[in-house]
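Course assignment 3, question 2. Fill in each field.
Student: A.L.
Task: Predict the tertiary structure for the chain below.
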Amino acid sequence: MCVCVCMCIDITSQNRKGSLIIGSHHEPKNNGGSDDNLRKIYRQCSQNGRTDIVKVVTYAQTQEDAVRHMTIASSLNLPNNPPLINLAMGAQGQVSRVLNKVFTPVTHPLLPSSAAPGQMTVREIQSVRFSYFRSPNRLLIYNRIRKSVSIIIFIIILEITFYLIYMLG
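Answer field:
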C-alpha cells in the first residue's frame, strides 16, 4: 500500500487504487500559533474529508504547548473523522509521541541522532506507556476525576516527565 503525503493541497483524484492520503502540515519552529490557527490547520489538512489521515506537527517550547496541541486535536470534529497524527517536537513535546496512536515516528538507539527533536525509540515509548497504564494508582485517580480531561492530561504529563527524567537523565 502506498502512503502519500500532501501539504494541504487540493485532492481531486477519485481513483486512488488503495493509496492512503495524508494531509500534513509541519511547524518545525513554533507551536502552531493560536488555538483557532491550529484548528484551521487541521481543517485544511483534512481537505473536507478527502484525506485518510491528518498529520499536524508543531514545536513545543513548553509542555503546555504539547497539551494544548493534543487537547485541540481531541476536540475536533473533522469530516469523515480521520485518524490524527498530532505531534509536538522537542523534549517538551515527548508526551505527544507517547500518547500518539497513529504512525508515531521513532528513532533507533544505534543511530547517531534522531530525525526530529524529541524523537524517541520504540522501547522508550513502550516503556513509558507500560509503566503508566499498568499501575493501579492511575485507575484510582481516574475514577475520582474522570470527567476532567485537563486534569488527566496534566497527571499523565507529570508522570511521564518524572519517568523521562529518571530514565534519560
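Instructor remarks: Residues 3-168 form a domain with the TIM Barrel fold (CATH 3.20.20.70). Strands lie at 3-6, 20-26, 53-59, 84-89.
Grade: pending
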